Amino acid sequence: MLGANSKRGAKENSHTMLQLQLMLPLLRKEFLEAWRDRRALIMAVSFALLFPVMIAGGSTFMIKKKAEEVTRVAVLGSAQAPVLAEKLAGPGMEVVSLDDDEPRSLLGEGYHLVLVIDDEFEQRYRDFLAPSLYLYVDSTNTSSGRAQRQLQERLASLQQLVVTQRLVARGVATQVLAPWKLEMRDVSTPSARGALLLAMVPGILILTLFVASLATSVDTSAGERERLSLETLLLQPLPAWQVITAKMLAVASLGWLGSLMSITALVLLMPLMPLAELGIQQATTLSGVVSMGLLLVPLALLVAVLQILLALRSQSFKDAQTQLSILQIAPLVLLMALDMAQVSLEGGWQLVPLVSHQQWLKDLLVGEVVSLPAVLAGSAVTLLCVAVAVLLGARALRRESLLTAA
Amino acid sequence: MIQVQGISKSFAGQPVLRELSFEVPDARITALLGANGAGKTSCLRILCGLLRAESGQVLVGGVDPALDPQGVRRQLGVVGDREGLYERLTVAEYLDIFARMQGLSGAALKSALASVSEELELQSLWQRRMGGFSQGERMKVSLARALVHQPRHLILDEPTRGLDVLAVRLLRRTLLRLRSAGTAILFSSHVMPEVAELSDRVLVMSQGRIVGRGSPDELIAETGCGNLEDSFVALAYGERAPVAEEVV
């Protein structure tokens, strides 16, 4: 009896081995088909590289813009208060003393602000009569608000200095005027500041998984159905789950490599980006790239099989393209909604595919450590979803309407 | 041998096959003749296990495709009504992949590939990708894929559609060789001269039923028509088509 059971077990094992061996040529077919599809490859590579280039270009532009942010102030009547005009000039502020001119025309000639010093300024200042300063501003200019704030801060600090000097000259302790002193302390670390800039990166990396594999997932499912080559495939002695699995692996390979290419390009471009000037240190290293790549494997499989499932359910190739284009936006919308709703993504959220991946990627991007048990548990849940989706896909392949609709 | 016993099938409540029964004996070429919508393709898909009959039974070499579809597919070669090729694969890759999916490997695989390449004159196409192949070339590759594992049963859905004379001759020669080797061959067609010349037995289908069966000569004799085309019209539509003499 025992011998018969062990014989049966051995037979079943060899049958399973044979089935898996038959899957290898199917895998080869799917990979050759996927990786020779020039249109799909161009789409995957373009999107994968476009995004890091955009980030690099965006940050350089931000720095350049910041460097160019010099407030230009024209001072009319500076002879009345030459020291004042001199003290206003400093980093980020260019002060030009001019003779009498029309403030409106000066504002139109590239000056952000025009400060007019009253004709009686010197006399009234000496007499402690609070002489007037007139500030001309064009509020329709987008930079005027920032320039105005900057100038007012400088004038306030100069005013404080004069008051202090006057009180000291009269033997009054300056502390009387200042019951407290407010000092700003920025406690953000360079990594955390980096996280602010790179906050959108995980979402876009996940989007790359979708976009890079879209064309292949449509081609291998709805496309094959329309060309009737799916029927030829289903006529082979292979179980339907193997057909779906092979297709999923080929589709996922494109999505995953697209994302990996994005991450690698981003990390390679980081030294060329003026991150230090934005107060960001490069926290992502090669090991970070490898970790991110590994984390994305289960998600790439899930994205691939979901896209195939949806494409198999659609009426035609074009219908599949439309439906999948909508699907691509869904994860971004979900992640943005969670972000906007300020949901605390602790505990159970760490098991939710997409949400957990976004969190892990965010942490790795700024050089923080992710919890291994959380990653293992989250990945296991994602792989479980993959297994369920494969079974649903196998069921979809057995649907008669799949062939009769073609 | 393929045995079909009382199968019925409907789509969205519309009957497509009604109590269909027939046999496809070994070493014989059986033609399934019917107008568009007669149910030929549905019938062939049921034989392959792609569709399930609502009633009745099918046995392909003694195996029921509804119970063991993979068992049936190992002993079937099928050429569908479109070739189902992969345009980004070369002929060599395509045939190698499908032969391996049928369990061939090593020397057996090499020999099988060499054999179909020679028989279907594929040498000049062997390393070419299949995108842009002519209809005849596509049919040859598709037939090679169906034959590479030397199936005991061969099913072809309108195999001569769109083929030129040379391709038809090659197909004819191949089918005759397979018949002599004992293969049970079932093919559907619209082309009467082809059916008359190739088939040992003809099954005439109309509205999901077999309305006539026998050799081409037997059908002609049974209907009293002058040729197979007229016999088909008489059987399928219940009317006697005008023969040449009457037209004159």
Number of helices of chain A: 15
The best one-word shape of chain A is elongated
User: What strand order characterises the main sheet of chain B?
Assistant: 5-6-7-3-8-9
Named CATH topology of the domain at 2-84 and 152-214 in chain B:
Rossmann fold
What's the rounded overall pLDDT mean of chain A?
82
Provide mean pLDDT of chain B, rounded. Answer: 88
Tell me the series of helices and strands of chain A, N- to C-terminal: HHEHEHEHEHHHHHHHHHH
Helical segment tally of chain B? 10
Tell me, briefly, the overall form of chain B: globular
What is the name of the CATH architecture of the domain at 2-84 and 152-214 in chain B?
3-Layer(aba) Sandwich
Distance between the termini of chain B: 45 Å
Tell me which oligomeric state these chains represent: heterodimer
Helix content of chain B: 25-40%
Biggest sheet, spatial arrangement of strands of chain A: 2-1-3-4
Flag low-confidence runs of chain A. none
Structural class of chain B: alpha/beta
Please state the CA-atom Rg of chain B, rounded to the nearest Å: 19 Å
Name of the CATH superfamily of the domain at 2-84 and 152-214 in chain B: P-loop containing nucleotide triphosphate hydrolases
Radius of gyration of chain A: 33 Å
Class computed from helices, strands and strand pairing of chain A: mainly alpha
